[in-house]
Amino acid sequence: MKKTVLLFLSFALLTGFNAISQKGAKTVSGKVSDGQNPIKNVLITVKGTEQNAYTDEAGKYQIQSSIGDVLVYSYTGLRTLEILVEDVTRTINLRMFPDIAELDEVVVTKSKRRSQQDLEIAFNTNPYLVRSAFGIIDPETAAFQVRVLPATSIQAVGLCILDVLRNEFPGVSIIGDCLEGGSVSVRGASSISNNQPAIFDVDGQIFTDVPIWLSPGSMERIALMSGLAARNLYGAIASGGVVVINTNVGNAYAKSGEIQDKLRLRDNLYQGDARTQKVLLADRPTYYQEIYGSNSLESAKQAYQSFVDRYKNSYPFFVDAYAIFSDKWDATDFAETIIQENYKVFDGNPLAMKSLAFNYEAQGAYEKANALYKEVFLLRPAYAQSYLDVAKSYRQVGAYKKAASMFIRYDYLVQEGFMQASKEAFSTLMDRELNNLITKQGKDVLPDSKPKSYLLEEDFDGTRLVFEWSDSEAEFELQLVNPLKNFQKWQHTLAGNEATIRDEKLRGYTTKEYLIDGSLNGDWLVNINYMGNKSLTPTYLKTTVYHNYGKVSQREEVMVFKLGLKGVNQQLFRVRSSGKVAAN
Fold it and tell me: Is 285 a domain residue?
């Protein structure tokens, strides 16, 4: 097994691919629509080649491609979409959207150097312009890097700027909470010796303390500048970086009569409209309802047997059966027999094996999950998620040194350029996982070749939520509702977050974390609106809740949800300030 892993890894490194290895040709087919009606004459092209196809009157198409190819879907007036062909890609049923972002792009790139007067005029229409104490900064033409979070991405669910930065800006060091205050540093991970905190520029006024009094609902734009760039403008006081905050109250360039309450515009007060899992049971497949609704274990087994022949090639059927017999009937031996007798439908299919591994984890069958994650690693040795899954799985079975080695190996491959670092938060998540492992198990888990100073100071104290999904094509909206009933949404859709999905697929990861500190006591509700995965198969979502994260009393709970019903906001669970989790 060890030699096989090394062989696959060596092949991945030598060929230099990111998340997808090149293999033989395969046929991809599907249907293109606008969400309601099929679209005829959509051009589907294999990027970089002359291979193409068109949709027919029913919106259907078929095209030859290879693993690692990018399929480009284009149609006049609709946004051009690109989909990466993966090892499991066979069907892509795509929904296309009007190309409404084109005008904004013209505004941003139309001019390379504009006067302050021009920038003032463009301020209300260009969400990436930032007002500072030294005038309006345009990230497109600035001589230094400026990371901007526009109003549409600022989540009002937190209590203060610390909550927003912690969730939306990976790589930023944050200490403290919204009750006692704290500090922020935008210096970058390599500047270990520089402990100077960042300063804050709020509508042109400079603050050395964190403005915890400022509500996220009033924030219109947030920008980060590292210390090196900020010193050129703000002087030595900005050696730890600058956090620039533009509020809707301080917008001097608002149009006459413009509504300034951006929180009301976002309308983020939860109305209690999400359906519970109990209510959604009626929308489950017939086999699920009959097995789950049986009045005894024996009748449940009979119900299962009556459906086996019909679903003998369907891995979701066997995953569901395993979960029902394990959860409701506590018949783990029978549940495992189901898997062993039908393992052929899982073998060689990473989506099927990950879905089963999720359920193994939820049942505490960590050794079985570990075996599956290692098999998926063999199939996907260049997927970033493979390293995360195997490392966390090794930790669950007590193989702490192996877990640390997997995290360090991934970091080494990124540093050497064999794998690309994520533009999103995945690299930060990997660092957090390794840091937590060292914190809990001690520095002896590190290889002898690594310095024992590898441990970093944890910048978060509270409840950590980690979401992982089985299918990279899955589209959904996660909704977190705080105790005050304000909610935030994370759009994992091509329409709302295409750049993130592209980054995920190119680097091969399917995970997202949320950090909830102790500033706001009460119940946090987690909902999801599933929008499909471009095929007829369901997606399995695993959620790991870490209570008292980073402390001696840290504990974790794993829950798995099957996502199949589309377009319905459904409750997953709630996290209580007492540290309990309640399914809905």
Answer: yes
**Pairing mode of beta strands 462-469, 539-547:** antiparallel
Does residue 3 belong to any structural domain of this protein? no
pLDDT in tens, 82-104: 999 999 999 999 999 887 543 33
Q: What is the pLDDT of residue 312?
A: 95
The answer to whether the beta carbons of residues 528 and 538 sit under 8 Å apart is no
Choose among 73, 109, 124, 89: nearest CA to 19. Answer: 89
| pLDDT number for residue 252 | 58
Is the same domain home to 81 and 143?
no
Asked whether residue 16 is domain-assigned, the answer is: no
Greater confidence (215 vs 297) lies with 297
Q: What is the mean pLDDT of residues 451-472?
A: 77
Asked whether residue 140 falls in the same domain as residue 198, the answer is yes
Query: Average pLDDT, stretch 231-240?
Result: 78
Identify the CA nearest to 332 among candidates 340, 323, 319: 323
Please write down the HEC assignment for all residues of 103-161: HHHHHHHCCCCCCHHHHHHHCCCCCCCEEECCEEECCCCCCCCCEEECHHHCCCCCCCH
Task: Report the distance separating Cα 129 and Cα 332, nearest Å.
Answer: 57
Last residue in a domain, options 236, 265, 294: 265
Neighbouring C-beta atoms of residue 451, cutoff 10 Å: 8
Q: Higher-confidence residue: 407 or 579?
A: 407
Residue 414 to residue 114: CA distance in whole angstroms:
38
CATH number at residue 26: 2.60.40.1120
Residue 18 pLDDT more than 50?
A: no
Is the domain of 357 the same as that of 464? yes
Which stretch, 236-240, 365-369, 489-493, has highest mean pLDDT?
365-369
Domain boundary among 265, 285, 304: 265
Q: Which two tokens stand for residue 378?
A: 């063999």
Range in 322-336, 473-487, 533-547 the model is least confident about: 473-487
**Cα–Cα distance, 149 to 478 (Å, whole number):** 19
Range in 199-213, 279-293, 436-450, 497-511 with the lowest mean pLDDT: 436-450
Q: Which residues are within 8 A (CB) of 464 and not within 5 positions of it... i.e. 6 or more apart? A: 513, 514, 515, 516, 545, 546, 549
The answer for residues whose C-beta is within 8 angstroms of residue 300's C-beta and 6 or more apart is 291, 292, 294, 324, 325, 328, 329
Residue 578 lies in a domain: yes
Scanning the structure block, which residue is given the tokens 């301020």? 123
> Contact at 8 Å (CB) between 415 and 450?
no
148 in the same domain as 194: yes
* 233 and 340 fall within a common domain: no
Token pair listed for 103: 């005008």
- Supply the range of the domain harboring residue 30: 21-95
Residue 239's pLDDT band (cuts 50, 70, 90):
confident
What residue has token string 């804050």? 200
CATH at 453:
1.25.40.10
Where would I find the H helices in 363-493? 366-379, 384-396, 400-415, 426-441
pLDDT at 31 over 60: yes
Looking at the structure, tell me whether residues 197 and 342 fall in a common domain.
no
Structural domain total, the chain: 3
